Amino acid sequence: MSQSKSHDQRIAELTFASVYPHYLAKVERKGRTKEELHEVIQWLTGFSEKKMQQQIDEGVTFEQFFQRAKLNKNAHLITGAICGYRVEEIENPLTQKVRYLDKLVDELAKGKKMEKILRQE
To answer: What InterPro entries would the database entry show (predicted)?
Structure first.
């Protein structure tokens, strides 16, 4: 699915640190934990707890965040709609990675089992 270049650019320029508190609030509001959120982020990006905190402290953009990440080999198994787009149809690679993360956070908040979220079945 095609999105506008300005939309993709806005996503690239967003900082992970500015979005992370929203992810955390969303999952905690639904009864999930910070540790579970970190497990999901670590699964997708390969970042340790320390490396993830470093990204927050440095104020990296999503573009820098995903340049530094080692995307999980099973990330392509993340499918479904998020923000009105099917993640598997997003053409811009960076926007797709950000939407992968959004989708995982959404699944966590909706109470999905961790094994399903981490595509272990």
So the answer is: SP1917_dom_sf (IPR023204), UCP033199 (IPR014580)
pLDDT per residue as tens, the chain (121 positions): 445 778 889 998 999 999 999 999 999 999 999 999 999 999 999 999 999 999 999 999 999 999 999 999 999 999 999 888 899 999 999 999 999 999 999 999 999 999 999 998 6
What is the Cα–Cα distance from 76 to 7, expressed in whole angstroms? 22
Tokens 């905690």 belong to which residue? 28
Question: Half-sphere exposure of residue 111, counting CA atoms within 13 Å on the CB side?
Answer: 3
The per-residue b/e assignment along 74-88, b for 16 or more CB within 10 angstroms, e otherwise, is ebeebeeebeebebe
CB 81 within 8 A of CB 102: no
How many domains does the chain fold into?
A: 1
CATH number at residue 58: 1.10.8.290
